[in-house]
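B., you asked whether I could sanity-check this one before it goes into the benchmark set. Here's the sequence:
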Amino acid sequence: MSIEGRARREAKLKRKRFIEMLKNSAMFLLCVAGLFFFLNDRLFHIAGAPSEADAVRFFGSAPRPYVALKDGEAVVSFIDVGQGDCELIRYGDVNILIDSGDTDCEDAVVGFLEYSGVTHLDIVIATHQHTDHYGAMYHVLDCFDVGLFLMPELPEELVPYGITYERLLTVADNRKIPTRYAKAGERFLLGENCYLDILSPIYYDYSDINDFSITAKFVHGENTFLFTGDLQEFSELDLVESGTDLDADVLKLGHHGSAGSSCEEFLKAVTPEIAVIGAAEYNSYRHPRVEVLERLRSVGCCTSYSTANNGNIVIVSNGVDLRVEVEKNNALILSE
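And here's what the prediction gave me:
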């Protein structure tokens, strides 16, 4: 090999070694940074230092959309948990979780909460005792400080004694989380002109767990959100006939858009501008059902989103106006 050839080969080897050194250094720094974020979140708590969630958001790996909470704003997130329900309300320093999806959704739910900046939950609500609404809740209760856990009271014959339900109650008991049944008519004040009302169940003689679903209404200034769990026509009509104020700008559609929910009388009482549906893509139930979407149109609601179509859905309220951000596919299920 000529002198020039050897020189080129040595230069090439030097460049290769230099690049390898840079890669190793970068990997070492990333490991050190990751260890720092991990230890700071759990031990050091250095003020102003980035958290693990901040780091993940910076590198673009956080669940989308990410919405920072601004002064005076409320953010309502409909978390994609497949064929299930999960909603997060944030206002000021108050965080409320309604449902959690099924047992296989625990990482998705906890991840979304952490990346949204949630460090504690003031209220956690299991709308009713079906696992697609409370299956992952035991893990949520184990990961966050919780101020109050609410669920509906059921007749003894409907209580779902099983591993998942027992695990939920055990975690709540072990962590000494205040737990009680929800009461229709109670109000939780969250701030000035901002509160959460419990509207149902108002009767306790139903034969179906779905009809015991907790209905909650969140009010932020002029904007209102109605969460209905798996409320069905029978209990919807009970609410309408009770004279309860059901009017809301945003309706979380009952029972994933099932034909047995969201009856015309109920929708006329709610008169929603926006409907949101928690359902899995290509689900075997064909949720949301076409007839339900037609009912929405008939009461003037021509804007509808679903987690099946849009992934995570986030609605931001400034007390007057609403802004909707979605994870994917801006196309709506309904349009004018």
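One thing to flag: DSSP finds ten helices and 17 strands in the chain. Otherwise nothing jumped out at me.
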